C-alpha cells in the first residue's frame, strides 16, 4: 500500500530551495540572452523626436492629408519619418535618427512650414467671412433706409392697390432685413470662435531599446521554466525511489 505524503508541497519547496543556485543562474542567463536579442532587434536610431500641431478650425482634407504635408513641407526630411493626422485636429510627425540637432531642425522646419500653410488658409477664411459680414451690414443699412421710406408711403396710400403693394413691399423688406441680421450674427459668431492653428509641442529624446523589455521577459520566462524543470526533476527522483522501495 502506497504511503501518503502530507507534506509533499513542503518537500517540493525544500528541493527547489536546495537548487537555489540553478534557480538564480538560469533566469539571469535567459534575461541576458533575451535582453541582448531585444537590443539588436531594436531600431538602430539613437534619438526619437515628435512635433504635434493643432489644426484648429482648419478641417480641409487637402491641407491635412499626410501625403500632401510630406510633399509640401517634408521635402527636407532626412531621417525616418512617420506622419499621422488624428481626427483632422492634430498633426503628429515622428522622426528617428542618430543626430539630435538634425532631428530638432527637421521637426522645426516641418512645423514652421505646416503652420504657415494652415494659418494662411485660416486667415483667408476669416478675411472672406469678415468681408461677407461687411457686405451684409451695408445691405442692412440699405434695407433699413428702404423700410423708413416705405412706412410713410404706406400711411399715405390712397387706394387699396397702393396699400397692398406697399404692404407687400414693406413685409418683404422686413423679412429680408431679419434674415440679413441673423446671417451677420451667425457669421460674426463663427469668426469669434474660429480657432487658429498652433504648435502644441516639439520634443527630441533618447530612444529606448528593447533590452529592458527583453531582459524582464527573459527573467520571468527563465524562472518559470527553471521551476518547472526542478519539479520535473523532483518527480523523477521520487519515482525512482518509489520503484526501488517497491522492488
Can you walk me through this structure?
By secondary structure, the protein is of the alpha+beta class. The chain has a domain at 7-42 and 213-235. The protein contains seven helices and four strands, in the order ααβααββααβα. It has helices at 8-18, 20-41, 61-64, 66-73, 100-155, 160-193, 211-246, and strands at residues 47-54, 80-86, 90-97, 198-206. It has a four-stranded antiparallel sheet, with helices on one face. The longest helix has 56 residues, at 100-155. The chain is elongated, with a radius of gyration of 39 Å.
Helix fraction bin: 55-70%
CA distance, first residue to last residue: 13 Å
Q: What proportion strand?
A: 5-15%
**For the CA atoms, what is the radius of gyration?**
39 Å
String of helices and strands: HHEHHEEHHEH
**Count the strands?**
4
Stretches where pLDDT is under 50 for at least 5 consecutive residues are none
Amino acid at each position: 500500500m502506497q504511503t501518503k505524503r502530507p507534506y509533499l508541497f513542503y518537500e517540493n519547496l525544500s528541493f527547489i530551495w536546495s537548487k537555489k543556485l540553478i534557480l538564480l543562474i538560469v533566469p539571469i542567463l535567459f534575461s541576458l540572452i533575451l535582453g541582448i536579442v531585444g537590443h539588436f532587434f531594436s531600431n538602430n536610431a539613437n534619438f526619437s523626436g515628435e512635433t504635434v500641431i493643432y489644426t484648429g478650425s482648419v478641417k480641409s482634407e487637402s491641407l491635412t492629408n499626410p501625403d500632401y504635408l510630406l510633399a509640401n513641407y517634408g521635402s527636407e526630411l532626412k531621417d525616418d519619418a512617420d506622419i499621422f493626422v488624428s481626427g483632422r485636429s492634430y498633426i503628429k510627425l515622428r522622426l528617428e535618427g542618430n543626430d539630435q540637432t538634425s532631428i530638432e531642425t527637421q521637426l522645426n522646419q516641418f512645423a514652421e512650414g505646416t503652420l504657415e500653410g494652415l494659418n494662411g488658409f485660416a486667415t483667408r477664411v476669416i478675411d472672406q467671412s469678415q468681408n461677407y459680414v461687411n457686405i451684409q451690414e451695408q445691405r442692412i443699412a440699405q434695407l433699413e433706409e428702404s423700410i423708413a421710406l416705405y412706412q410713410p408711403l404706406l400711411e399715405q396710400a390712397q387706394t387699396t392697390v397702393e396699400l397692398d403693394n406697399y404692404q407687400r413691399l414693406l413685409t418683404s423688406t422686413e423679412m429680408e432685413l431679419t434674415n440679413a441680421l441673423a446671417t451677420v450674427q451667425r457669421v460674426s459668431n463663427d469668426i469669434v470662435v474660429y480657432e487658429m492653428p498652433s504648435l502644441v509641442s516639439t520634443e527630441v529624446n533618447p530612444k529606448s531599446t528593447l533590452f529592458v523589455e527583453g531582459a524582464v521577459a527573459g527573467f520571468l520566462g527563465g524562472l518559470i521554466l527553471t521551476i518547472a524543470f526542478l519539479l520535473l526533476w523532483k518527480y523523477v527522483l521520487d519515482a525512482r525511489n518509489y520503484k526501488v522501495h517497491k522492488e
